[in-house]
Amino acid sequence: MGQNAQGAGFALLAFGIYATHDVVIKFLGAEYSPFQVIFFSTLLSFPLISFMLMRDATQGNLRPVHPWWTALRTACAVINGMCAFYAFSVLPLAQTYAILFAAPLIITLLSIPMLGEKVGIHRGAAVVVGLIGVMVVLRPGSAPLSAGHFAAMASAVFGATASIIVRKIGNEERSVVLLLYPIAANFFVVGALMIAVYKPMPIEHFGAAGLISVLGFIAGLILIIAYRKAEAAMVAPMQYSQILWASAYGYFIFGETIDMATFIGAGIIILSGIYIVARESRKGDASQSPVLNSRARPYGAALRFMPFFRARKAEN
Question: Left (φ > 0), alpha (ψ -120 to 50) or beta: where does 256 sit?
């Protein structure tokens, strides 16, 4: 088996674990507010974070080189996490994924003002087609839009913004800074918001919150292996396999079915995303390739851990 095939296989495994991670979010979201789920999954991720920090040999302090960009990314990360966790709690899994898959399209648009990237007619048309796919999923006017739909759209926007900021400042900021600031914000901001809606958790639900962090951590490690073995253009499209996991999990665990509009819209979004990845991979080093270089999932444990993983990959 070739390196690209191995990388694609590891990526499929990673995104399957990520999908399981999201099932646990949905399970807990049926009982608790997103604030409580995020707070305890963040709290229980500290042992993993401590392990990673012990391996960080870079010199420096925790003052950001770009404080305003770091603050903006931190705010986007916190809002994005709350929106994604809420969307998974109230929407069918497949529909949530279909909307979140718009993030690479938004990254492409944001790369114009924030990275100075030139988006040609081909990628521009792919973005437009992909956004049409989002409208097909949402079908405004024919079905009422819920708070969950708006939360999923907000998650795609804020997650894309956080990813593009990492792309902009990631070479100058220490990975520890990119890792710790969103965690600290989640701990204090989400913790404060949780107080009004807190519900006591039995030990099995407390363990499920820890499982969210563990699954995100393991999937992130496997995804880095995938990127080491294969070209980014082979690995990145594997994220769309999550729609298959979502369909299976949604049907067998939550009794969900995919309606035709979601199926068609998701197909349009996925095809446009794959086209953008293919275009960026062809441009090679002459392009900043914002989608190929924004590899972290834009929410959950992956968002917290992936800047560190990217730094470790660069060191190796």
Answer: beta
- Model confidence over 48-93: pLDDT tens digits? 777 777 766 666 677 898 999 999 999 999 999 999 999 999 999 9
Angle of the 203-229 helix axis to the 300-315 helix axis, nearest 10: 40
The residue among 308, 18, 310, 296 whose CA lies nearest residue 163 is 296
Q: Residue 292 and residue 281: Cα distance in Å, rounded?
A: 8
CB crowding 89-107: b at 16 or more within 10 Å, else e: bbbbbbbbbbbbbbbbbbb
Q: What is the pLDDT of residues 251-291, one digit of tens each?
A: 999 999 888 999 999 999 999 999 988 888 876 555 557 87
Structural domains counted in the chain: 1
Q: Assess contact for 66 and 165: CB atoms under 8 A.
A: no
CB 216 within 8 Å of CB 16:
no
Query: CA–CA separation, 92 vs 265, rounded Å?
Result: 14
Q: Is 140 helix (H, G, I), strand (E, B) or coil?
A: strand
Contact predicate 293/167, CB 8 Å: yes
Instruction: Output the pTM of the full model.
Output: 0.88
CA distance 62 to 232: 30
For residue range 11-40, what is the model confidence (pLDDT) as tens digits? 999 999 999 999 999 999 999 999 999 999
Alpha-carbon gap, residue 84 to 186, rounded angstroms: 14
- DSSP annotation of 145 reads P
Angle between helices 242-254 and 3-29 (to 10 degrees): 30
The domain of 309 spans 3-315
